[in-house]
Amino acid sequence: MTTIDDSLSHRKGIASFLSILWGDMIIFGACMVLAIYFRKRPEYHRRLVFMASCQLMQAVFVRFQYIGHHNLFYPALDVLVVAGMLRDLLVDGQVNRVYLYVFPAMVVLQAWATYLEQLNPSWWRATTQAILGS
């Protein structure tokens, strides 16, 4: 059985991976808070919960050796969101506005988390070392 340590063993600085984890928490939390806010508007609520659930799939995709090793977990989960958008387009004839506002914000936060994880700037390294106590 593969553990998170085995699947991420190719990473040099595992502390920098905190940006990915925090990005996931921020995106998931924001989508769920918005879903609760829009609970009386089912067309918004459903899509926000769907997008929050898709964001949780990062933890699954990173464990697939090829996807995790090549940092393709965000594009893989974004494909799920795009599938939801295509469903709206086919069934409703248009993409719901929730996707048009939230999905670009998700991609920006994913890009920022990936930037921090990949380049690991000195200020981010110092932050993660302070948090981890190392």
List keywords for this structure.
134 residues; mainly alpha; 8 helices; 76% helix
Brief overview:
Helices cover 76% and strands 0% of the residues. With 134 residues, it is mainly α.
Question: What is the topology?
Answer:
Blueprint: H1 4-7, H2 18-37, H3 42-56, H4 58-61, H5 65-69, H6 73-92, H7 97-119, H8 122-132
Helix pairs in contact: 2-3, 2-7, 3-6, 3-7, 6-7
Architecture overview:
The chain is mainly alpha-helical. Helix content is 76%, strand content 0%. It has 8 helices and no strands. The chain has helices at 4-7, 18-37, 42-56, 58-61, 65-69, 73-92, 97-119, 122-132. The longest helix has 23 residues, at 97-119. The two termini are 29 Å apart.
Q: Considering DSSP H and I runs of 4 or more, what fraction of the residues is helical?
A: over 70%
The biggest sheet amounts to: none
Oligomer: single chain
Give the total of domains.
Answer: 1
In whole angstroms, the N-to-C terminal distance is 29 Å
C-alpha Rg, in Å?
Answer: 16 Å
Indicate the low-confidence ranges by residue numbers: 1-5, 7-11
- If you average the pLDDT, what whole number results? 88
Principal-axes shape call: elongated
Q: Percent of residues in beta strands?
A: under 5%
Order of helices and strands: HHHHHHHH
**Class based on secondary structure composition and strand pairing:** mainly alpha
Number of strands: 0
